[in-house]
Amino acid sequence: MNPLNALKLKSLFERFIANHPKLPMFFKAAMGEVREGTIIEIKVISPENKTILSNIKICADDMSIVEELKEIR
Questions:
Q1: Is 2 in the same domain as 19?
Q2: pTM score
Q3: CA neighbor of 32 nearest in space, from 66, 68, 73
Q4: Are residues 48 and 71 in the same domain?
Q5: Per residue in 18-49, pLDDT tens?
Q6: Do residues 29 and 51 share a domain?
Q7: Count of structural domains, the chain
Q8: Which domain holds residue 40?
Q9: b/e 56-72 (16+ beta carbons within 10 angstroms → b)
Q10: Both 42 and 62 in a single domain?
Q11: Alpha-carbon gap, residue 59 to 15, rounded angstroms
Q12: How far apart are CA 62 and CA 57, in angstroms?
């Protein structure tokens, strides 16, 4: 990744978190519950009430990624 793009991504992420300050607390709490076999579901509802829903089931490889991400913080 281009270092300038990485800096821009960081800035955009910080701005997003400033707009939604409870999100990091939610992710921190949720990550404490994630283990192999956990299902993570994401639901998006548009202003027109259109719903898009998806989920993933966490596997062993996903858990190794989660552990690495925890170390990056």
A1: yes
A2: 0.72
A3: 66
A4: yes
A5: 999 999 999 889 888 889 999 999 999 999 99
A6: no
A7: 2
A8: 35-73
A9: eebeeebeeeeeeeeee
A10: yes
A11: 31
A12: 9
| Residues 19 and 42 reside in one and the same domain | no
CB 58 within 8 A of CB 34: yes
Cα–Cα distance for residue pair 32/2, rounded to 1 Å? 32
* Residue 7 sits in the same domain as residue 23: yes
Q: What is the pLDDT of residue 21?
A: 96
Owner of token pair 């990624």: 65
Are residues 24 and 42 located together in one domain of the fold? no
CA angle 41, 58, 49 (to 5 degrees): 10
Q: What is the DSSP string of 5-57?
A: HHHHHHHHHHHHHHH-TTHHHHHHHHHTT--TT-EEEEEEE-TT--EEEEEEE
How is residue 11 written in tokens?
Answer: 């800035």
Do 55 and 41 touch, CB atoms closer than 8 A? yes
